Amino acid sequence: MHLAQLNVGRLVAPIGAPEVAEFVALLDLINALADAAPGFVWRLKDSETDSAVAYRHDFGDDLLINMSVWRTRQDLWDYVYRSRHLAVLQRRREWFQRAVEIHSVMWWVPDGHLPTATEGMARLALLNEHGPGPDGFTFRDFRDPVDAPA
Question: What pLDDT sits at residue 52?
Answer without folding.
Answer: 45
